[in-house]
Write a structure and sequence with these properties.
With 366 residues, the chain is an alpha+beta fold. The chain has helices at 42-50, 92-102, 107-120, 136-148, 166-183, 194-200, 218-223, 228-233; strands at residues 4-13, 16-26, 31-35, 57-62, 65-66, 77-80, 154-158, 186-191, 203-208, 211-216, 240-247, 250-253, 258-260, 272-277, 283-285, 293-302, 307-313, 316-322, 333-337, 344-347. It contains eight helices and 20 strands.
Length: 366
């Protein structure tokens, strides 16, 4: 196990800066997931930790030792790649044990460690097979075994589940989490899939445009997103965002065509805000219900245990996730009930969270 300290890390390609002064601390034994869209710099940051990318500025320390100038093999990291990178002409056992062979580990010890890793990953019956004869999940376990056998201080995962089908991804998420609990090694996992991030992480790092937007537990990031970007990126369906203006008696939305009751403590009248509401926090009611917003149903997605209802709110797309008995049809009208306690507010200019104290207020008939 090892802690990782990242201070002021930047990465430039020629005159283009792709990572902008990142500061992070990963505790020993922690499972950290770096989440963000393609091109946000998350894989570049991971490769700088591994030593596969040169650091343009700043420092990275592993277990208190600055590793900027160390070769990848000297850093105590093992990396699992998206494409597995197995040797096709070698058996599973040879793939897993190759790094030990190169390091000159005696054959007897090497075989013993290969068997131990294979037992952990349930690969014992596959040791004589070549990668071509394995399923995608089995190949991924072989790639993890090749990393594990080095007994690294740090595991680095670069979108390792991207090439798997949906069912196998769920299975491998469980395998990776169980493996982490058994080994208790420091793990850094990069993904653009927020479901993977939420289910795997002890702590989550959300990146956007080469910068860290927010760091916290999955629960903290979901319930108190630090920015409009985080709010809409984390969660499925995404958080609904409606532009509005704070008024004396509530919130004016969609250019003044709609109004909602809210407590405006901390938000001066006239403040331009983006109001966010999670789809599961919206309650469906009958159209015309006092205090509700009427909307036209565009699409209904049945999910078995519930459904996602997409509606049109004066030209603005809006979604509701519900397991209630109501089954509105496309083209019908529904009422949307939104509690002030479930509202999130972000600056219309900067996108940063506006932390204001909100309490439920009586909803006047509108």
């Amino acid at each position: 196990m090892a802690s990782i300290t990242i201070r002021g890390v930047k990465k430039n390609y020629a005159k283009t800066q792709v990572v902008h002064g990142v500061d992070l601390d990963f505790a020993s034994g922690e499972f950290v997931v770096i989440l963000g869209p393609s091109g946000c710099g998350k894989s570049t940051l991971l490769r700088m930790i591994a030593g596969l990318e040169e650091i343009s500025d700043g420092t990275i320390a592993i277990d208190g030792t600055v590793v900027n100038k160390l070769e990848p093999r000297e850093r105590g990291c093992a990396m699992v790649f998206q494409n597995y990178a197995l040797y096709p002409h070698m058996s599973v056992a040879q793939n897993i044990g190759y790094s030990l062979k190169v390091s000159g580990v005696p054959s007897a010890e090497r075989n013993q460690r290969i068997q131990a890793v294979a037992r952990t990953l349930e690969l014992e019956h596959l040791l004589d097979r070549k990668p071509m004869a394995l399923s995608g999940g089995q190949r991924q376990r072989v790639a993890m075994g090749r990393a594990m056998i080095r007994e690294p201080k740090v595991f680095l995962f670069d979108e390792p589940l991207s090439n798997l089908d949906a069912k196998l991804r769920v299975q491998m998420r469980s395998e990776i989490r169980k493996l982490h609990r058994r080994l208790n090694a420091t793990s850094v996992f990069v993904t653009h899939d927020q479901v993977e991030a939420m289910t795997l992480a002890d702590r989550l790092v959300v990146m956007n445009g080469g910068r860290v937007e927010q760091v916290g537990t999955p629960g903290e990031i979901y319930t108190r997103p630090a920015s409009r970007f985080v709010a809409t990126f984390v969660g499925a369906p995404a958080m609904n965002i409606l532009e509005g203006t704070v008024e004396l008696d509530g919130l004016s939305l969609l250019g003044g065509s709609r109004r909602l009751a809210m407590a405006r403590a901390g938000l001066p009248v006239g403040t331009k805000v983006a109001m966010g509401i999670r789809p599961e926090a919206v309650r469906l009611v009958a159209p015309g219900t006092p205090g509700a917003l009427d909307a036209s149903v565009d699409l209904v997605e049945e999910l078995g245990a519930g459904r996602v209802i997409y509606v049109d709110l004066d030209g603005a797309p809006f979604s509701v996730m519900t397991s209630e008995a109501m089954h509105p049809e496309p083209g019908s009208t529904v009422g949307l009930k939104i509690s002030p306690d479930d509202m999130h507010f972000f600056s219309s200019e900067t996108g940063t969270r506006l932390d204001v104290f909100k309490t439920s207020v009586p909803e006047p008939a509108l």
